[in-house]
Design goal:
Elements: E1 11-17, E2 20-27, E3 30-35, E4 42-45, H1 55-60, E5 72-76, H2 82-90, E6 95-100, H3 103-112, E7 122-126, H4 129-135, E8 140-145, H5 160-169, E9 170-181, H6 187-197, E10 200-205, E11 211-217, H7 226-240, H8 244-250, E12 252-253
Parallel strand pairs: 5-6, 5-8, 6-7, 8-9
Antiparallel strand pairs: 1-2, 2-3, 3-4, 9-11, 10-11, 10-12
Helix pairs in contact: 4-5, 5-6, 7-8
């Protein structure tokens, strides 16, 4: 995931595979994952491995304003496992499936970022996200896509065909959650592709400028009354310590260009 925070030469471990290096660094009690560059892909606070350190991961959890406890969450892109670890800890009855195409990332995530072993509620699948969604139809309540390499959005995870297959992988009230980089020259292109596929689309900016969470619904949410959503956001914020009220206030509906 591209977060825009440059760390310099702090690598404590470097792992190589056919696709480049997977690097791990630490500073001030926080461990970072990099994929072939100094750009931060993931971060874990050593004293609290489940905390969502990076603001983009926090805002991606904004889906909870609309879906409190989904039965199944699929995450494309493991990184350091911040999102799946958080969901596993706080939603113990939710089945979490993570799809990652780099075996070295899986190894490093488990050895250095406390990503747990597979069990009946949690699994990491080695494979391509764009293929996985074509093989798993109407079975996911929330599909989270964080598809970046060391430099940019992975093109295969941002095509209109990908978003169409993503919709077919979702249940009738399912939601797609995509992390996009707002300064990307293709940002509006990606956003309009999502809009053409889904019935209702909103964006939520991360607290750290740059990242944008896109929430795309297979059909318009049943609850859109502001007072009700604000009450729910306050309850969620008190329970989980994430900025749900600010997320709600930052929501903007995506209109066709």
């Amino acid at each position: 995931m591209i977060n825009g925070l440059m760390l310099g030469k702090w690598c404590i471990n470097r792992f190589f595979d056919g696709g480049g290096s997977v690097d791990v660094s630490e500073k001030d009690g926080v461990r970072f994952l990099h994929l072939g560059s100094s750009t931060v892909q993931s971060a874990m606070r050593l004293r609290d491995p489940v905390e969502l350190v990076l603001s983009y991961t926090r805002v991606m959890m904004g889906f909870m304003i609309f879906v409190l406890e989904p039965k199944t969450v699929a995450v494309i892109g493991l990184g350091g496992g911040s999102l799946p670890k958080f969901i596993r800890r706080h939603m113990p009855n939710t089945r979490v499936v993570v799809v990652e195409n780099n075996p070295r990332v899986i190894t490093v995530a488990r050895s250095h970022f406390e990503v747990p072993d597979d069990d009946q509620f949690f699994s990491v699948v080695l494979g391509k996200g764009e293929q996985w969604i074509t093989e798993n139809l109407a079975c996911v309540d929330v599909l989270m896509v964080d598809g970046y390499d060391g430099w940019r959005q992975v093109g295969e995870l941002a095509t209109e065909d990908f978003y169409s297959h993503a919709r077919r992988a979702l249940t009738c009230d399912g939601m797609l959650v995509v992390n996009l980089w707002s300064s990307d020259s293709s940002f509006d292109v990606y956003l309009q592709r999502i809009k053409r596929v889904f019935d209702f689309v909103v964006t939520i900016p991360a607290a750290r400028r740059g990242n944008m969470a896109v929430l795309a619904f297979t059909r318009r949410p049943r609850e859109l009354r502001w007072a009700k959503l604000r009450s729910r956001a306050r309850q969620l914020e008190a329970r989980y310590g994430l900025e749900f009220v600010a997320m709600l206030e930052g929501i903007r509906e995506v209109k066709p260009i």
